[in-house]
Amino acid sequence: MTSTTSTTAAGPAITGRTAAEIADSVRALVERGALGPGAALPPVRGLAERLGVNRNTVVAAYRQLAASGLVITQGRAGTRVADLAPVAQEGYARDSVLRDVGTGNPDPALIPDLSHVLPRVVGRPVLYGEPVIDRELEAWALAWLTEDLRPTDVRLTVTNGASDALERLLAQALTREDAVALEDPCFLASIQTVRLGGYRAVPVPVDDEGMTVPGLRHALAEGVRAVVCTPRAQNPTGASLTRRRAEQLRAVLADHPYVLVIEDDHFSLLSQHPYHSIIGPAHRRFALIRSVSKFLGPDMCLAVTASDPETADRLALRLSPGTTWVSHLLQRLTHALLTDEDAREVVTRAGRHYAARNADFAARLVRRGIPAAAGDGLSLWVELPAAARSVSEQLMRRGWLARTGDEFLLGDRSDPSRHLRLTVHALDDAEADTLAADLAAAVAAVRA
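Given the sequence above, the corresponding structure tokens read:
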């Protein structure tokens, strides 16, 4: 069979008569570098005419490519080659001689000591076919989560951290190109999870009271099949939902009971704010995630999720015994720490410490003419009267490495961010005063 070829002035040739041949041709062009990340594929109608095939054949080819993650369909904006360049990650910057105040890390000195509970968690080996959730952890965690949830019929799932829970929740409910509502600015791990899953992120702005009502309405009008919300200590802004805002969001979601609502309450035991949920008592698809990494340490990679029975059943299929279960040693250790008086006292002290140090640094900035207010969480979200990247560059000259708000943005990126996310709780008073002074000087230098 003679292959039909499409050659355009805007790019390389795409060939093929069938959907599989067209998809293979595009794949080959991408692999050879002839089509780079972000490159636009021809419109369906135009490519079909040039190849002499039915429009549905091209549609099927593009659908195959989208399902494999090679391209991203953007509705009227067309279809483009996916950009798999690495996105920003949490944690320390590598190979930097600067003082890093953008890490988002907890204080190692305020993570409970594991050694005194370790002897209590060593027991008989767990074998294939046994329950995937430790019974003592299940009972404790279910009571902890359900005291805050309005729906009464919930099931518990254990995963390897909050990001693992989010990935599994979206995968059991969505297919590629489905729309997901994410807060904007957004937690870096959520951006990465949605991107790698091939879903379409719909940004919902965040203000001082959390996710905004008009933003959620817009996202639902865009056809989102899932909403991811941070009820407390939203990362990076530090915003926590107020009772009033949570009630308003529940009212909006009442007309969409089958949209999956995921609450990532990552700061739970450390938070200085009450928990207000956007999950109404009659909502049909929901999940509340609480991980332990912020207060028991990032290496304690475990999260518990309370969800509706259908969601829990689907999650259980993706957590089969012996293949993808969470280590029972880790589950026992988590339960031992969370029920230990000394460990819980350390967690309580840590939450107060983070809040106090953030408030103290915000006050130092205010005294230097930079309006600032401490939210909740490990870091401080500082609005600047100048572009954050320019201020960050000035801070680097003074020995500081900060994280700009640009990395957390989902929506319009045409205007540079005017925010810095600063992790300052590990600074002593002298260091905090130096950073505040240097930040004020950096802002003045940029504005001059």
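Confidence is low (pLDDT under 50) at residues 1-10. Try to locate this feature in the token string yourself.
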